């Protein structure tokens, strides 16, 4: 995993969710509240997800091998995709099942009535601190980019995943507090089921969004537009008058493949072409702040190629 805020945000979320999951489950055992059970499973899933993100970051640092010659950078996308599946199944689907079960057999909270409210309020505070850490770290990476746009365009999975998980957790806690409070006020257990159902729908939506984003990263996304523009500008220089076409693809969050066909001067010698390619590669590496794997193919533009062929004939 890249050094910096991604790891810090993941660890902060892991510590918060582990403690919250244990507390929520104890509250469920005391009250038998469906919302509390749904929230305890939600926090448990989130804690497991953070472990997966840390494992993915660690595995992505392995050196390239004969089989994986471009390295293991995409491991971070694989583990983030698994996170979305776990969030969907263990978090969202379980909460929806628990809501259906509670609707089938509604019962009020009759014992330890103050426990779920206290636990949820404390959990909201703790999740708020976790979200604050994630937002502060994301601010360093996104600059002035709006938060939603940053989540959509980021090539690093950790911060977007943690941001969405923490936002979902905070909203889920508010929904659980609403369901529990209405159950206590009305003595109608169906409000508890409504809270659990709302949590389930929320988690399914977030997990589906994450799955789509991680699937796109696994398929291979191009460099960010500003990096693409910088590469295009850097290619043209001494010995390379123009760029014919360019293709880029992220091999991991911090590594991008650059493949381009570049025009060279008609009549240039092999040594001059080699020097021009070397110069272009140096300019590309200096133009973007991430590691680059570069393949440049020298060619003549069609008009130049036709002229060269006519000269030979």
Task: Give an overview in words.
It contains ten helices and three strands. The chain is mainly α. It folds into two domains: 215 residues, Up-down Bundle (Alpha-lytic protease prodomain-like); 88 residues, Cation efflux protein, cytoplasmic domain (Alpha-Beta Plaits, 2-Layer Sandwich), CATH 3.30.70.1350. Strands 1-2-3 form a three-stranded mixed beta sheet. The N terminus and C terminus are likely disordered.
Task: Break the fold down into its secondary structure elements and pairings.
Layout: H1 5-31, H2 34-59, H3 75-104, H4 114-142, H5 147-153, H6 158-186, H7 190-219, H8 225-235, E1 242-252, E2 255-263, H9 270-287, E3 291-299, H10 302-312
Parallel strand pairs: 2-3
Antiparallel strand pairs: 1-2
Largest sheet: 3 strands, mixed
CATH-defined superfamily of the largest domain = Cation efflux protein transmembrane domain
Strand content: 5-15%
Q: Work out the count of structural domains.
A: 2
- Uncertain residue segments: 1-5, 308-313
Keywords for this entry:
313 residues; Alpha-Beta Plaits; 2 domains; 10 helices; Alpha-lytic protease prodomain-like; mainly alpha; disordered C terminus; three-stranded mixed sheet
